[in-house]
Design a protein that fits this description.
Elements (H helix, E strand, L loop, with lengths): L25 H14 L5 H40 L1
């Protein structure tokens, strides 16, 4: 059995390109969009407010965390560089 390293496998002759999809007109498209939109389970106003508040809180906590870490690293590097001076 011979190995074919770096060679592409032969293409079968019966591999025909996929048939073209039927195009829909704009009216059918928007009708389908509305049908799909009705299937979606939308969040309530209360769920949206709570999620937004939680995202804002997490963003503030992440900003504070990175501020503290950045300040610590800056202090450490400054301290190390002052040792050599």
């Amino acid at each position: 059995m011979a190995k074919t390293i770096g060679k592409t496998p032969p293409v079968k002759k019966d591999d025909a390109p996929a048939p073209k999809k039927k195009r829909t007109n704009p009216f059918q498209f928007f009708q389908q969009v509305r049908q799909e939109g009705r299937k979606v389970t939308w969040t309530t106003r209360q769920e949206t407010i709570v999620s937004t508040i939680m995202v804002l809180i997490m963003a503030v906590l992440a900003a504070l965390f990175f501020f503290v870490v950045d300040s610590g690293i800056s202090f450490g590097i400054t301290w190390i560089l002052r040792l050599g001076a």
